[in-house]
Design a protein that fits this description.
By secondary structure, the protein is mainly alpha-helical. The chain has one domain: Recoverin, domain 1 (Orthogonal Bundle). Helix 1 runs antiparallel to helix 2 and helix 3 crosses helix 4. The N terminus and C terminus are likely disordered.
């Protein structure tokens, strides 16, 4: 069954505005991030596939896998530059990242593993307790104004 890929405008709009205007304070993990890393951080809320407020590494992989399968028009398990461009039409993050960003071995093709196994900058920047979950508190903390809270247990 295909994964529903949607956008939660309320959260996305605020974070995109902060990122686009460069409003990250010096205390923010976004302050020293590259534009591409900021784009990943801004896009993170769109990967919350079960809409529970938390964005997990697994949800990112499910999201990227669904887009990969849609873009792999000949179903051969790899994306050519032409097929990859379909990802950019579905999600501007992939357009901004570009083909070479995911083509780890430089062979002119992107496998699913290359796409989903590449470390995702959103988790590096926002997942402050390194549990592979970006919580709403961690996302709010990225603006440098709201203290970042950590989950306890598990």
């Amino acid at each position: 069954m295909p994964v529903a890929i949607g956008c939660r405008a309320k959260n996305v709009g605020l974070l995109l505005l902060l990122v686009a205007q460069g409003c990250a304070t010096s205390n923010s993990p976004l302050a020293s991030a590259s534009p591409l890393e900021r784009q990943f951080a801004a896009a993170a809320v769109t990967w919350d596939l079960n809409h529970d407020g938390d964005v997990t590494c697994e949800e990112w992989k499910q999201y990227a896998t669904a887009l990969f399968r849609e873009a792999d028009s000949n179903h051969d398990g790899v994306l050519t530059p032409e097929e990859y461009s379909a990802l950019g039409r579905r999600d501007k993050l992939f357009e901004m990242a570009g083909f070479a960003y995911f083509d780890a071995d430089g062979d002119g093709r992107i496998t699913l593993a290359e796409l989903i196994d590449k470390p995702n900058p959103a988790f590096t920047l926002l997942d402050t307790n390194h549990d592979c979950v970006i919580t709403p508190e961690e996302r709010r903390g990225s603006d440098g104004n709201t203290p970042v809270k950590h989950k306890r247990g598990s």
